[in-house]
Amino acid sequence: MTGSGFRVLLPVAAMLARGASRPERRRRPLLVGCSALATFFLLGAVNQLLIRGTTVTQWAGLVSEEDLRPGTALGLALLVVPVLALLHQAGRVTQAARERRLAALRLAGATPGDVRLLGAVEAVRAGTAGAVIGSLGYVAAQRIAMAVLHVHDTGRYAVPLWPIPLVVAVVVAAAVVTSLRVSRRVVVSPVRVTRRASRPAPAAVTLILLPLGVLVMVVGGQTQDVDKVGVPLFYLGGALTAVGVAAGAGRLILASARLAGRWARTPETLLAARALEADPRAASRTMAVVGLVVAGGTGSAVIEWDVLQQAAVDHAGVDLFWLVSIGSTWLGLLFALLVAVTALVVHQAEVLLEDGRSTAALAAAGVPVAALRRTALRRTIIAATPVCAAAALATAVGMAAGLYTSASWGLAAWMAARALLMVAVAIASASAVTLVSNRFLTRAAAPDRLRAE
Amino acid sequence: MSPLLRASGVSKAFGRTRALRDASVTIGAGEVVAVSGPSGAGKSTLLHCLAGILVPDAGEVHYGATRLDELDENARTRLRREAFGIVFQFGGLVPELTAAENVAVPLMFGGLSRAKAAEAAREWLERLGAGDCAPLRPGELSGGQVQRVAVARALAHGPEVVFADEPTGALDSVAGEEVLGSLLAEARGRGTAVVLVTHDNRVAAYADREIVVRDGVAAESPAVTR
């Protein structure tokens, strides 16, 4: 196949696509959808950065005011993070079936490079389709929004054509990189599929960024030279905290799972804890994004506190600009949370459908499916709780201590309440999604999965 | 010997494939019965119907006075947990649990405390010559050790029937004989009936009686003294 290159590779990819199983066919719209969403938000961010000048308006300040647009662009770009996490999870769906198929292709003469390229071809197809849909969707949505909102200055705000191919290229490249990452630990030989030696457990050192980020935020907030040193330090601390949540999620989940496993009194908790202990990284990929949403929601509480205090001093209602801005932030957080928990559904479906033979054996041996459902729920709670709690605590301490010089019990209570609310909402969402995705358990526990392959 | 399990006129189809046709078999208490036949003959389907994992399309399956095919999923699950033990060709162990935990977890689902279940699991592993495996995970065990753990799991709660679906199919002959020897010695010692699915005549020779399944049709041989 190597000698013939793409002349053979493309028809083979088409043949494989035609012979795909039902779960694989369901995976494709997910990949296309993720690529479309990523394109939509990236194009939105680029669009913000390309707008010049200011139009005076109260309700759309985040877009119309020049100084605020970089922040809006950053917010939109950040929304790509959960979408990429979902894309990564979607890429893992039916991974085992695809690996077996690639092993068969290796037996038929394909080189390791060929099978990697075949994976990339699929990613390019799905990524391109999604990016085109996302671009058209963005342009159409923007036109409709401007018409509905009676924007006269459309030339200023409309996205120009030239960045669209660039954004499409970035999204397709991200899809390819994600596809290659999924199978980077897999060696497909003509006779079998083997996984490289499992990675060591996440080290405690991965947690270091979290307290460091909080410390830098506090130092930045307390610095006298606010503009030159304070603000950059504060933002650096925020970024370090966010990276710390993502990097430390695996270790937090491992610690939580070990603790739960040690004290487990029920078989459901023991099964849940041991599954997380064996592979904390799988859960951390999704829970890190959930944790970041919690951090974002907790952090925005300080701004809301400021706005409410100002409104109280002015004896006036909250300014419309702030209402729209805070509302937009909440919408963004809600969207990120939805995408993150969707990734959780995809992850659980993948685990159950691909590695579910032991689940089927447990069910056949008399373990009720309801108990297996409880196991899945406890797995989510054991993983989500420490990540969300750490994210909320770090953000609350960093933001409050960094931005306020004098101790305020009101602010402390406000931040604590918000942190608790965010943790509760995040864990409840993840749990609800787990309960919904538990319908896959019925299939995973089906007797036909007991047959040897 | 009084029949412990009785299937009469059992049929089961998967789509247009008729896996089992009008099968009638009986299993006595403490009896070791081999279900043999070529691949795809319907052996595993018969075992799954007898164990209440599958519900037949037609016919009846009785376990003592209980009609299995009329029970709902919850009741069949409870019955499997309390009265049956199951051993699969691939072990069916939970990869994240240690060998001891794999044996203990079904006992915990049966209501035993973690400490008591762990103690019972260790005793069973010792008894089956797999005591050293207790702290290891299935990925760290050999095929024979995995099957010993699976046998311990199937026997630990004191079932009346053990269903073994090709328990030695993935093992070499020496390991296979060791696993089978352990299973049958423990079962015979406790008066537990064993339904043993196999396509290997040497394995079938261990049984008191043989049921041959061919193209979904089951034929019973008379009992032999071994």
TrEMBL record, chain A:
Main subcellular localisation: membrane
Segments forming domain ABC3 transporter permease C-terminal: 92-186
Residue intervals passing through the bilayer: 30-51, 71-91, 123-141, 161-180, 201-221, 233-254, 287-308, 320-346, 381-405, 411-436
Keyword Cell membrane attached: yes
Domain of life: Bacteria
Keywords: Cell membrane, Membrane, Transmembrane, Transmembrane helix
Cross-referenced Pfam families: FtsX
Membrane topology category: Multi-pass membrane protein
Cellular location(s): Cell membrane
Name of the protein this chain belongs to: FtsX-like permease family protein
From TrEMBL, chain B:
Annotated ABC transporter domain residues: 5-226
Pfam families reported in the protein's UniProt record: ABC_tran
Region forming the signal peptide: none
Keyword Transcription carried by entry: no
Keywords carried by this UniProt record: ATP-binding, Nucleotide-binding, Transport
Gene3D superfamilies xrefs: P-loop containing nucleotide triphosphate hydrolases
Gene Ontology molecular function: ATP binding
Presence of the UniProt keyword Nucleotide-binding in the record: yes
Domain of life: Bacteria
InterPro entries on file: AAA+_ATPase, ABC_transporter-like_ATP-bd, ABC_transpr_LolD-like, MacB-like_ATP-bd, P-loop_NTPase
Spans through the membrane: none
Protein name as it appears in the record: ABC transporter ATP-binding protein
Protein species of origin: Actinomadura fibrosa
